[in-house]
Structures are given as C-alpha cells and as structure tokens.
Amino acid sequence: MAVDGKPYATYDRKPGDQMAEWPFDKPFYLILNLAIGGAWGGQKGIDTAAFPQRMEVDYVRVYQKAGG
C-alpha cells in the first residue's frame, strides 16, 4: 500500500498462514468516507462549527498480482 508513491504499509504472507490469519484471499471493497464525529460515534451530536467539510480524491488505483 502506498500514499503519494511512498510505501505506507506492507503485508507479507508467511508460510503456514491460515485464512483466519490471512484474510487477503477473499474479495475486498474500497470505501472512501468523510467520517464526521470522531470518537464520539454520534453520541454527543456533531459540532456544526466544523462545517463545511469536503473530501477531494484525485484518483484511486488498485493493483492485483498477475495470476490473482
């Protein structure tokens, strides 16, 4: 995984990993979300002074290994 061309996180599968330990062999869905509310989870409402907000996404690129 990379952000602005710089590695952000990597996940290497080790020999003997089971599905419970390696969930990346099943379909995943990308969700882009501008979450509002922080750690409150909506319990205390939303501070309207934080608005307006926006999320701008230039592009999203997804890679898949050959044969996968």
Q: What is the secondary structure topology, with strand pairs?
A:
Layout: E1 2-3, E2 6-7
What does it look like?
- With 68 residues, the chain is mostly loops.
- 0% of the residues lie in helices and 6% in strands.
- It has strands at residues 2-3, 6-7.
- Strands 1-2 form a two-stranded antiparallel ribbon.
- The chain is elongated.
- The mean pLDDT is 76.
Number of strand segments? 2
Portion of residues within helices: under 10%
Q: Radius of gyration from the CA trace?
A: 18 Å
- Biggest pleated-sheet summary: 2 strands, antiparallel
Query: Which spans have pLDDT < 50 for at least 5 consecutive residues?
Result: none
Report how far the terminal alpha carbons are from each other.
17 Å
Q: Find the structural class using helix and strand composition.
A: little secondary structure
How would you summarize what this structure contains?
This protein is largely without helices or strands.
